Amino acid sequence: MELIIATNNAGKVREYKDIFQPFGYEVFSQKEKGIYIDVEETGTTFEENAYLKAKSVYDLTHTCVISDDSGLEVTALNNEPGIYSARYKGLETEAERRQAILDGLKDKEDRSARFICCICFMDETGEAHLFKGIWHGVIADRPEGSNGFGYDPIFISEDADGKTTASLPISFKETYSHRAKAVGMLMEYLNNNRKENL
Q: Which of 18, 38, 59, 69 is catalytic?
């Protein structure tokens, strides 16, 4: 059975191939299937955006599709940047977006934050199944570490012993992160509901 990952991010496609091939899926990126669409994320939640991306690819292929949407919510900043994490305040670089978070927290005592990932698995009938992972933590005083990307250098998760995500091995994030949690829920669903159908 075919499965299309609604992304052109090669690293993400590789990760999903490792997950789904043992379940009997042939996993493809959009590009590998000749799909060149850039879905506008007009949703107001991670769930809506993940669904929009999956539905756009499903409507073209009528094949199983996976998409995800994720971001950082900082409590004292009214849960910003949230769904706008990749384009926060219109800033172009990751370093500028990280600095905007740090600047916004300068006079704040509450530095709590959470990463959120919502995965949408759309099955061959077009039914959507949503899985949401949340990774709690706090924002560091300054960037630290070179592993990871995005907000990893300023995020200290609750299970990181005071170190930023970017200061720890990539394997730590792959084990504990918001995406890892959402993927775990998805795999549990597949184990319980899909294996007998493949």
A: 69
**Model confidence pLDDT, tens digit, residues 146-190:** 988 899 999 999 999 999 999 999 889 989 999 999 999 998 998
Is 69 catalytic? The answer is yes
Q: Three-state DSSP class for 30?
A: coil
> Hunting for tokens 């990932």 — which residue is that?
117
- Cβ neighbours of residue 177 closer than 8 Å, sequence gap 6 or more: 115, 117, 133, 135, 157, 165
Fold classification of 2-197 (topology level):
Maf protein (3.90.950)
How far is residue 132's CA from residue 130's CA, in Å, rounded to a whole number? 7
Q: Name every residue whose Cβ is closer than 8 Å to that of residue 77 and which is 6 or more positions away in sequence.
A: 101, 104, 105, 108
